[in-house]
What does this fold into?
Amino acid sequence: MNRRAFASAATVTLLLGLPAVAAQDAVVYFTGDQTQAAFAKGQPLTENAKYKIHASRREAPGQAEVHERDTDIIYVLDGTATVVTGGTATGATAIADAELRGPSIDRGTSRTLSKGDVLVVPHGTPHQFTQVRAPFLYYVVKVTTAP
It folds into this structure.
């Protein structure tokens, strides 16, 4: 993650009173109130060089994403959404170090996610939420590979 994106995540989580930049090998704890506050806005819980944990909230579809170093492990808490994975992210451009975004995915696989589902998106795999029944709440654990 580039410094600006990392600083941004740190700022957001500090406002929530969360340990934004956790030491890689430290125990990190979040109260239920802290977690609920993060889900209310869809914000990171913590991030470091090895992993990130986000309390994600989607109200609408998003762009195609490709994380060149992060594998996303998604656990759905509430709502439903259609996600497209694989294929090619069309018109993708770099928005940060090792992060690409584009308007759509060509030739991907579409699946519907709902409460209790788990989806693992390996690093380098295009993925996009194309339909969302709001609110769509999900944890994302991002496991980061070395550059």
